[in-house]
Design a protein that fits this description.
The chain has 6 helices and no strands. With 131 residues, the protein is mainly α.
Length: 131
Amino acid sequence: MKARDTARMMTIRGVLTEISRLEKDVRREANEAEIVQILKRERARREEALGFARQGNRQDLIDQNQAEARVLDSYIPAGAGADEIRAAIESMIAGGINQIGPVMKALRDQFGARLDGKLASDLVKEALARK
């Protein structure tokens, strides 16, 4: 606030509002996984708004959404890498799990909020297709 960084301030206020809303709904404090989910959801909203701003040729909105996305990216923890996910998938398949549902559940349990669901799904399909 003292630095007068309005984009950062407004973005963080929006995220805090979403966290407060979640805490009121579930009547307990939000855990880390829930906060990361909120951050990812807000990042996705900025990405969607950025697409619409580009379609509308609105440079002011493009700049605003890019700045907000950068702020959110600084708070989102680094995701699990493709190689790390592949290794986990291979060990699960070697352990006898050969369906996409159980593999995805085990990956979510293992990696938690660090897991990119789209990337993991693609890697699981690829690995099961080779089998």
